[in-house]
User: Fold this.
Amino acid sequence: MNKRFNEIRLSGSGGQGLVLAGIVLANAAVIDKKKVTQTQSYGPESRGGASRADVIISNEEIYFPEATRFDTLLALTQEACDKFLFDLKDDGYLIVDNSIVKNIALVSSTVYELPFTEIALEKLGSALPTNILSLAFLVKISGVVSDKALKEAIERTVKKAFVDINIKAMKLGFELAKKTKK
Amino acid sequence: MSAKKKQENQPDKTNSSVLVKEPSEKPKTVLMQGNEAVALAAMEAGLDFYAGYPITPSTEVAEVLADKLPQRGGTIIQMEDEIASICAVVGASLAGAKAMTATSGPGFSLMQEGIGYAKIAETPCVVVNVQRGGPSTGLPTKPSQGDMMQSRWGSHGDSPAIVLYPDSVKEIYELTIRAFNLSEKYRTCVVLLLDEVIGHMREAVSVPDISKYRVVNRLKPTVPPEWYKHYDEDQKYLSPVASYGEGYRFHVTGLSHDKYGFPTNKASEIATMTRRLKKKITQNIRDIIQIESFMMEDAKVAVFAAGIVARSAKSAINAVRKEGFKVGLLRPLTIWPFPDVAVQRMLKNVETVIVPEMNQGQIIHEIERLTKEKNDSDIKRIQRTDGELITPSEIYKKIKEVL
Assistant:
């Protein structure tokens, strides 16, 4: 995808690994030689509370570093989905975890609903890599960074002991995207 | 810390005051966080000693240094609180170390006493304040520009301040090095003021850009020890400075003191001291002030903003310029001393000034002071204190209102 400006918001609650996913995505953009900013917003809690990471990827200089009109929105909680949905661009992708998000006030061909958390539990034995699983899905659907860059970014960013499971999660995310891409 | 290792890793501080680093071999772009940039740049500037007490949103500075500074032979201590942290920093600096601490609003309040001590004792050090919402504990994870005035006037007793205000990760790197350089040169505490969003933001930073900065070290005395005056002054109100353990005798106190550092009540000696504290900043102001002028050449409307708010302003200005309107931005990189002359000159031909800031109105008073010929209605404000950023569209709307 060669958009001039690409705004991605990864949203959910604290502890779901969204800030880490944002850092991975931003690193992938650097590997792809793009300009990038990554910001985050979260509460004072370690777990729980609203959490989000914004990544802006561009070929031009980025001034305002928070996403305001999203090209892609990942929502892993109902609250996040409700709050941010209306700032999604008309042709923007909405990706939700429908094991958690039950109501979506939008019907569009660019909406993707998958039970990411359940899939991670079932196929990877843990809900922890849900962030990378859904990020890989997002990358494959939107093409915002290359597959190769994402892999390299995971290897660079994630703690060594967790690289393997996250690479597995990434591959699973890519497969799911291939199957469901509309 | 091994003394031998320290020697290998530290620049020679005995003689020359300037070191120019060679550019690194291969160009490389990395994703770097703002607070991480503070830590890396501080080490690049020759940081020997860090003492601090962790506080959101500044914690990553200590986190990175805890990992990397000891490997370079430096020392990092987690103190019992912020008061002890600034005292340790001042003590380390008196012993010759380049010393720094990082904190946020609540800790910055506690440090004010020690910052005043560093100023009167003319002891170089750097204090990083990653601002968060206040008052008090306020909003640990949300941005605010509430400490603009505290960074200037927070410490009692009428002393000048040098405060730098970056707006990107790359500039954090540059201004951190500059903060150390200015503190060494002017023998004072320099504050690096960050917005929470800038401290936590990650951006692509090109390594060769950041690997060739000038590093300034404090001048060392060359006179025999019996001639040494710890608080001497040249025409620029500057003087070489000895450290403890180098064979020079001097006294350090928070009381007003003479040139040897001993307490004095003599009016003439007190006046000499207070004049030097002021003049060393005001007489060298052109070396200290940095200001960015963005599309100001023909501007009829100017936005005056610092840090993250200036980035929103640039975005808004680009949009308005595309519609053919003449709008520009003034952005201080040095917020204190306030860039009076530059601001006055650049705002002279402007009809309206918009001052967006994430507080209840602090910098706007400086602009009002410098634009007395304008009507009150020519100065517009945007003030936001709900923990959210001022967006480009808010500034865009305000610009369109006044056009």
